[in-house]
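Budget justification note: compute hours in this period were largely spent on complex prediction jobs such as the one shown. Inputs:
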Amino acid sequence: MKKILRLLLPAAALLLVILAILWQNGVFSPQKDGEAVGTVKLSVRCDRALASPDLKEPVRAVLPEDGVMAEAEVTLYENDTAFSVLERYCRAQKIALSSKGGTRWGVYVEGIGALFEFDCGAQSGWMFSVNGSFLSKSAGDASLTDGDEVLWVYTLDLGKDVGSHAS
Amino acid sequence: MRRSALSRLHPASSYALGGSILLLAFLTKDPFSALLLAAGAIAFDGEVSGAPFAAKRLAFFAALTALGAVTNPLISHRGVTVLFYLGASPVTGEAAVYGAVSGAMLANVILWCEALFRVLPPDAALVFPGKVLPRTTLVFTMAIRFVPRLMTRMRQARAAQAAFHPEHTLKNAFLALQTGVALTLEECCEIAAGMEERGYGAAKPSRYALYRFRGRDGAAVFLTLLLTSLSLAAYCLGAYRFTCYPVLARSGHWAWYALPAFLAFLPAAAERKEKLQWRSSK
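Corresponding output:
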């Protein structure tokens, strides 16, 4: 009996940890898309990263030379945000998207594909704009309407080099 | 401690060899070195303790590697090869490889530490420092032994105390601790006095040496230092460089892996040679 318990306890602990990680990853709360309500233009650009001398060679090798990681007309569904549009696109294109949900400021995108925050210095990372303006809220809260242009852009200087005045 | 070819060597040689292998196990972060070092450790375990034991060690290595490969992709989503999606998060091949390599490295260090502790004479670790820094070495060994000794003495004090103070109170526990500490410290003083009486750390020590440095010891030290310095030079030059992110990449010529392979299989080979000699001389 004791032996079984000694085996079961670590197994149960491991199972709990795995379940917690799965829950964190949102396995138990699959999001359903609403109805299609139009299209938006989605672009993902990394020109600034390519211009940076800090970018490591292995990362540079897998980035597109023209800096356009994505440019597509995607379907807009009900309740879509700047983040959910990017997430759906990355999933369809098999691009690894690293994001942190549930931060104090909402969802935060750490990396798209091979390019991550801090890859080009301490002030570098991903930002987004809708119709050319950088919003001072989370991408998970930025709702979209038909015909919007969503741009995810890599900055080297907290947005100053890509035209954001918010920061 | 088990008798083996390694434990019959002079401590300078056996500890140099063990230390070099552990150093490589700590430093190299590529799957190929990790596999070579693990194979060397498991072969050595097989020679010293038999095949069933080696099989258990192999299972341990595989389990830790697999654990790394499974858990890392759950936390890290780096890499460009998306294998599948777990909920909203992508599981990438690169993250799995990175986790597997980390798990294998950890397993390697544990495997080698255990294998070496099983065969190396523990007293030999103090032969050299004892000659150069006798006082520090004695204090160091006493510090290491203090806690296990204190636990034993405390248990004894509590057992004796239980005769007239049977109740488990905080006061009694403190009394036992006090007695235990006093006993242990007294014992340390006695050991130190006894060592001094016997001439430990005296200006001119006797010629008696428990371990003799023979020709084969010199050869072993030379070979170990040569292989280790070559491996370290190759490591610094990037011969074993392996990066997981964003894509798996390896640099350096394959021939460089002969160095860690040779070093890792040296203990097992020495063991095998010794066995063959015994068999043929019977």
